[in-house]
Design brief:
The protein has about 260 residues and is mostly beta strands. It is built from 3 helices and 16 strands. It has 2 domains: about 10-120, no CATH class; about 130-240, no CATH class.
């Protein structure tokens, strides 16, 4: 009996070499420049150089987040050191639990200690509807108000060599009444919602806020035909309306499409 889980459909995966892992860590954490492997991936992977890049690094003593919309990273350890872990250097990679560096179309995941890593992206293959990847958006809700969402200021004059003068990527220190804090590479945006009745009697609901977007990949059990989520790939951090579209009708829970 084969007890291995079925592979995610529609997903390309490439295991990184030790040299590629070292290059990712050196570029993002040491030099603070774009991750070259995401801009120029191996053959067969989609190449979209210049897309915004984001970082979510879970360490044994905290978390480091960041954004790289152009040439250089802005990381939370410099902008909000009191609420962020320090970046792992060459001598303390043992602190790494997981590092995710991602764009809208590809993701690098480094495992514990930075010993293993994988690149993932969409596979160009036709799939039946139940197995097609699906995009989701998760609301980074928190509490509203300036006392709970504070922009982290940076020194003026930030410059990217290849793009001229640029505003530095935003950082927001978000906190909860219990003292929990997170540094988000986003502008501070309070969560709000609106509803609007439609001609067919349904209600269109829209939510504005701070979002983490994710792409779900599904797999099918060959024995039973059951399908389920088998893999997640982070695709971005955004502010504004729900990137996945309107929410369900608040009264019925039915999906609603804006015509």
């Amino acid at each position: 009996m084969n007890l291995d889980p079925p592979p995610p459909a529609g997903l390309l995966r490439h295991e990184l070499t030790p040299g590629q892992i070292e290059a990712v860590l050196e570029q993002v954490f040491t030099r603070g420049v774009r991750c070259g492997l995401l801009d120029h991936p191996p053959s067969g992977f989609p190449a979209r150089a210049g897309e915004p890049q984001w970082l979510l690094a879970e360490l044994g003593d905290g978390r480091v987040t960041g954004a790289c919309p152009h040439e250089r990273w802005r990381l939370s350890d410099l902008g909000a050191a009191a609420s962020s872990a320090s970046v792992p250097g060459p001598g303390d990679r043992w602190r790494i639990l997981e590092v995710l560096v991602f764009t809208p179309h590809a993701q690098i995941r480094l495992g514990e200690g930075g010993e293993h890593g994988w690149l993932s992206a969409d596979a160009p293959e036709p799939l039946p509807a139940p197995l097609r990847p699906r995009d989701r958006a998760f609301l980074l809700r928190g509490h509203n108000g300036p006392e709970y969402r504070r922009p982290v200021r940076s020194a003026p004059g930030h410059r990217d060599p290849d793009h001229g003068p640029q505003e530095p990527p935003p950082l927001t220190l978000a906190s909860e009444p219990d003292g929990t804090r997170a540094v988000l590479p986003l502008d501070p945006v309070d969560t709000s919602g609106t509803t609007r009745p439609l001609d067919d009697g349904s209600t269109l609901a829209r939510t504005v806020g701070m979002w983490l977007t994710v792409r779900e990949y599904w797999a099918e059990d060959p024995a039973t035909g059951a399908v389920g989520v088998a893999f997640h790939r982070l695709t971005g951090l955004h502010t504004g309306p729900d990137p996945a579209g309107p929410g369900p009708d608040p009264g019925t829970g039915d999906p609603v499409e804006e015509v």
